[in-house]
Amino acid sequence: MNLPAAKIRMGFVGGGEGAFIAQAHRQAAGLDGRFELVCGAFSRNPQNTQDTGAALGLPASRCYSDWQHMLATERTLPEAQRMQLVVIVTPNHLHAPVASQALSAGFHVFSEKPAALNLAELLALKDVVLRSNRLYGLAHTYLGYPMVWQAREMVRSGVIGALRKVIVEYPQGWLSADVAGQGNKQAEWRDNPELSGLGGCIGDIGTHAFSLAEFVADQPIQQLCAMLGVHIAGRQLDDDASMLFKMADGASGVLIASQVCAGEENPLKIRVYGDKGGLEWCQEEPASLIHRALDQPMRVLRSGVGQPWLCAAATQRMRLPAGHPEGYLEAMANLYGDLANAIRGHAQGQTSGHDAPGVPGIEVGLRGMAFIETVIANHRGDAKWTELVCTP
C-alpha cells in the first residue's frame, strides 16, 4: 500500500496581518495540499506575529519574535518536525540576508523578488546558493501561467518563424496619487531606497515585464535604451519607465512599465512577432493566447485540461477543463508544485543542486537585478545603448 507523501513543512518570514502577497502565497501553497505552514516570524511587531500565527492555527511557540530566532530554533528541532522551506515575503532589503542565512542553516528558500537590493549583494547570495546544496526559487508568478509556457513553446518550435519584435507592457494605476503620503504602507516602503533598492516601478513591476519577455522569446535582452520618470512631487524612486531593447538573435523590442496609468489594474501584456506570425497574451485574460498567422485568420488558443493542441508544459500546469478560469493563485501554485517536486526529489537523493525545474531561480534573479541597474545607468548616462551584463 502506497502511503501519501508527507506535506512539506514551511515557515514564513514576513507576511503579518494585512500583507496581500503573503496571503496569496499561503493560498497558493495550500491549493494542491502539498505544503503545511508550521512556523513564522511574521512581523517586527511581536503582537502582530502572535495574532497572525493564532489566526493561522499555529502554536505560540512556533511564532518567533524575529527571523534569526526562527532559523536558530527550527534547525534544532527533530528532523520530522522542523521546517524544510523558508518563504520570504518581506520588503526587499531583507530578501538576500534572510535567504543567505536560511540556506546556510540547511533550509530551502522561496523568495519574493527581487532577490536582493543590488547586483553586488546578489552575486554574494549566488555564492551561498551554490555552496548550500539547497533549492532556491523566486516568485515570478506570471511565469507560472500555462499559456505563457504555450507561447514560449510556439516561439521555440518556429510556429511564428524567426523572431523580429517583442512588445511587453505593464501599466498599473495605483500610484497615480500620493498614496504613500496618505499612509499606504505598501507604497511607503516601495519608495524608500533603503528598503526597496534603486528601482521603484522598474524594480517592482518592470522586472516582471523583463522576465516575461526573456522567457517567452527564449533569448536574453542584450542592450537597452531607457527613460525613467517621476510624476508625483516628493517621490524618491521612479514611477514610470519606457525603453527600447535589442535581443541576442536580432529581435528589437519595447518595454513599458508604469504605476501612474490612472484607471489601470494589472494588465501585464506581451506580444511577439516573427516572420510567419505573432502571439499575444494578457495577464487579465490568462486563459487565452492569440495566434496571428501571416496568411490565415486569427485564432485563439484556450487553456484547459485535455486540449490536444496545447504543449505538455502548458497542460501539466492546468487543473481544470476548458471554460473554468484559472488565475493568479493557480499560477503561483504551479511554482509551488514544481518546488514541491524538487524538494521531495532532493530529500530522496534524486536531485541535487540549487535549481527547481520550472521555478525561476538565482540566474533569473541575477538577470532581473542587472536589468534594474542597467536601466538606471542608461537613464542617467549619455550613452544611447547600454549593454546588459550580470557583473557589478
TrEMBL record:
InterPro entries, sorted: Gfo/Idh/MocA-like_OxRdtase_N (IPR000683), Gfo/Idh/MocA_oxidoreduct (IPR051317), GFO_IDH_MocA-like_dom (IPR055170), NAD(P)-bd_dom_sf (IPR036291)
Entry superkingdom: Bacteria
Gene3D superfamilies: Dihydrodipicolinate Reductase, domain 2, NAD(P)-binding Rossmann-like Domain
Domain Gfo/Idh/MocA-like oxidoreductase N-terminal: from-to ranges: 8-137
Short name of any one Pfam family annotated for the protein: GFO_IDH_MocA_C3
GO MF entries: nucleotide binding
Record domain GFO/IDH/MocA-like oxidoreductase: where: 150-280
Name of the protein this chain belongs to: Oxidoreductase
Organism: Pseudomonas prosekii
Lineage, opening ranks: Bacteria, Pseudomonadati, Pseudomonadota, Gammaproteobacteria, Pseudomonadales
